[in-house]
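Hi R.,

As promised, here are both runs. First protein below:
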Amino acid sequence: MNLLMVGINHRTAPVEVREKLAFSDENVSQAYAYFREKGFNEIVLLSTCNRTEIYLTRAEKIPLKVVARWWASFFNQDPEEVFPHLYQKEGEEAVRHLFRVACGLDSMMLGETQIHGQVREAYQFALEGRWVGPFLGEVFRRALKVGRRARAETAISKGALSVGGAAVELAKRIFADLRTCSVLLIGAGKMGKDTARALIRSGCRDLLVCNRTFEKALALANELGGQVIPFERLAEQLISADVIIASTGATQYLVTRATVQEAVTQRGGRPLFFIDIAVPRNIDPEVGRIETVFLFDIDDLERIVDTYVQERQGEVQKVEHLIEQELSNFQTWLGERKAKPLLLALVHQAQEMSRQAADNLFKELPHLSDKERQVIRAKMHALAMRLFHRPLSQIKRLAEKDGLLSTAQELLLDPECVVSDKVKEDESEKGKSEEVSHEPVFFRRPDSSRDGLP
């Protein structure tokens, strides 16, 4: 199998482009089925406010531009307009990229911790839907592991400015005293909740929570010490609220220019501050053109975050070292997985050779008791396995280099050695569950010039 990752993020495209290719709660299951129909074996879709990435495996390689065209077509977008904003990674580079994402090295806010949970949720969703198998599942499990190590063994996330922290910095530039400001939270997602909590901790007074699902709004309001506002009363709350945080999975604007314009006329000149951290956006960008209204989206927060990045740059090298360690461990696992059929064959060969040698010996020594025969069989089997120990260890290393595995098979396997039917049956049943016949053979380092789409 071949591993491919195609993505778009805050570095390659503005939010108005990213939102057109973002998978939502409403279409993500459909997207999984769509890519499965295209012939991909394992699939994980990672979609956050700053990135959307598709991780895919397939038996044969497929032109990257074709995958990108399928992605664009799923959202009824013009592929030619999408191509310039996409990036791609294959094989080892795709694994390394995911490790960096899970560690927060590829985030808009260096070292931010939320992405680790988002990677975990994406993997869990794919696992529960049976879209991910043993190979891609191992890639994501190891990505989550290195993400945990990065936060436990380095200071990459200490003092990291979150989305909520950036929102607070912006609010302080607009309002002289946050203690006079009330907050309206639209949506019940984690990022919106964290932003609202940061504003409340910084002094903002009343918190209002508005969500289409009343039960979710009530639970969040109780958690943060706020009040619930029915969704149908959202427009009238714009008159009294000062800071509005929008973070829902809606695919259409929840707040329009006309609605805000009407609220502004009744606010007596008081500024109105919108933080739209949803992708797709929840607030019409035209709202930002209204006088006394300040609208910031997820991309705007990057300028606030940049001033804090330098403090954590010194930890990047430490995290990169951890990533290379885990990548090496993954290569070892992959080599063992690729070599497994040969390893099993050699073990079978050792067992068969020791069995045949014992049978020949017993013909020459017919007087041996059953107990003595059992002892001899056990000793000869142990000796055979000791003789094969070093070749088995070396094969695991050879498996990482293309071509050497087949050479080792030709040199080490005895074509006249017959594996017992019983052993064949046992290993056949194991093979069905472990899919040993579909080993991914791809670990070549791609040329750096091939990072972009063709």
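And here is the second one, sequence first, then its structure tokens:
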Amino acid sequence: MKTIIILGGGTAGSIMANRLHNKLDADEWQIKVIDKDPLHYYQPGFLFVPFGVYEPGDIVKNKIDFLPKDVEFLVEEADKIVPSENRIYLKSGVMCSYDILIIATGAEIVPEETPGLKGELWQKDIFDFYTLEGATLLAEKLKNWEGGKLVISLAESTIKCPVAPLEFTFLADAYFTEKGMREKVDIFYVTPLSGAFTKPRATKMLSSLLEEKNVMVIPDFYTEHVDNERKMLVSYDQKEVPFDLLVSIPVNKGSELIEKSHLGDEDGLNFVPTDKYSLQSKGFKNIFVIGDATNLPASKAGSVAHFEADILTENVLSYIEGKPLEAKFDGHANCFIETGFGKASLIDFNYDTEPLPGKFPYPVVGPMGLLKVNRQNHWGKLAFKWVYWHMLITGKNLPIPSHMSMAGKEVPAELLN
């Protein structure tokens, strides 16, 4: 019997385990999932925890409950991948051999990368919301915070869910408004980007929203260190931003396992060099990569993992059959953006096409609006939690194609020429 090992049982790993289980002959192929954490976190829910919308129990379940019964789930920490041997060595001393390896080890925050970020103010006046612990502690802080300078700061531009910092900013504006204390809070959005987002039309729309909500954007700010004593962000060119409460989106990196196995990219962020179309590792033909673990020029978001899984399933089957890898991932990403007060926006884009206005998912009726702010998008965002647990990670087909569609999009005249 041959073995497929999936390293990581989060969003991408769970989808692939279910998809391949449905496609492969169980008498010929054994599927193993290896993950050090038995718990599955609905990461989009972290955003809502600080504002009391979700409790931790709403967004944490057991990974094993979302995997097929005959998929072997090992709650173990991998120590090293040795591709030349087709083996993975676990920290427990166990060795696992594979015929095909799928790396789905994700990304994680590394606040230690920024000097002073995890100093004496960490989890007192400095918080993250990209972990359940950080989001939960921040919720307690916000309940009794009396106001001042609230700074939302991105340490780097390569992060999980690139719109989440903006969503937090919009939700914070609504939260303090509804508490009757918005005038006591000055909100600053500090980013290394030249604007609110990476795509021109989306940036224009989001910048307008930030201005409307009286949020000051400080662009092109590359944080060098955090001065805990003076409560100050300091950039590499010695610009400074004072804070009373700092909500940090720290440096995001791939798993240390990738670094230890010498599989990471040259920039030291531990993401795996991956063919942007086939999702095959650039170093080894029997290794494939999916989700946040890749170094693709695509968003690190759950929707991307979903669309990648459609492509990767086809290509893994083609690889097994000795056929060319003809399925191509186009960089498709689809993201709701909470804007506060029960409304949200929606963007849909890929490698070549930036977010455009229009209707989604159906061209005429929508009901959701692209680059629009409305209640339908907000309800779509909240409904996605049910879709995630019951359909997405269990590998069921969703009505959104893996390749981005232009149907319903309003294409500007300059793009038609």
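A quick note on the second one: The two ends are 55 Å apart (CA to CA). Let me know what you think.

Best,
J.
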